[in-house]
Amino acid sequence: MLREEYKLSGERLPGLNPVAYGQEKCAPGFRVDVPRPYWLLHFVLSGKGHFSTGSATYEVHPSQIFVIRPHQTHVYTADEKDPWHYLWVCFDSDIDLSELLDVDVITAPACGSIFSACLEATGLDSGKREFLSGKLWELVSALRRLREGSAERLSPYVVGAKRYIEQNYMKGIKVTDIARALNLDRSYFSTVFRRETGMSPQQYLAEYRLERAAHRLVAEGDSVASAAYLSGYGDIVNFSRRFKAHFGTAPSKYREMILQHEENGHAQRK
User: Fold this and answer.
1) Cβ density class 66-102: b for 16+ within 10 Å, e for less
2) Which residues contact residue 159 at a Cβ distance below 8 angstroms, ignoring those fewer than 6 apart?
3) What is the pTM (predicted TM-score) of this model?
4) Residue 102: which of 20, 254, 189, 207 has the closest Cα?
5) Of the given ranges (54-58, 119-123, 152-156, 262-266), which has the lowest mean pLDDT?
6) Theoretical Cys-Cys bridge with 87: which of 37, 49, 115, 165, CB 3.0 to 4.6 Å?
């Protein structure tokens, strides 16, 4: 098993700010399931494995990227017979990437060279963060070109639904409200959304709210009550129950868990 992980220190960069990068040639069955407050992209070089977001599970192969969003519940596991070897980069962002990275798995063989180039930062005496930020912008550019040239574009109804949720999740909206905003029959809208995303609109809305609440707890330092209210939950008891079911821990403990994980990771790299 090969593992190389490099965590960056120094002043945060605006725009796309790299946090860590590395590669891992996994042992059979190697499993990761800890949510993080950052974007995390893996590019599979060889082998295969399974990636699950809780609502959908994928078998991921070479030349594919699997996308983990900030605070997203996930599990990824190396295949028992042909475990994967992947490159990865972890970053936070001041720009909205929700539309560009709105699918869980992206087939993008042309992006492999960008991920490989990230490892070149290890040999730099200075400017590592700026070098990696440049590679992240290059990756965003490549993914945008791939998306615009892809024949498999999302239905405008799904794009519109996701945009509506992003703009209104903090309110008490329901699936009926989303369908009405798109001038669609609720049943038809739900069918189209599930067919193209692998989950129901209700599941997507619930996960989006919980992930935004997790972001508020960690990145903004909000109280549990404030995070619940600002994410569209009027009932804190219901919010706490759903949060624990989704993330595996109570919201009051989530921030502590994330910070402890980051501290442990830092200690292991020393």
Assistant:
1) bbbbbbbbbebbbbeeebbbbbbbbbbbeeebeeebe
2) 99
3) 0.65
4) 207
5) 262-266
6) 115
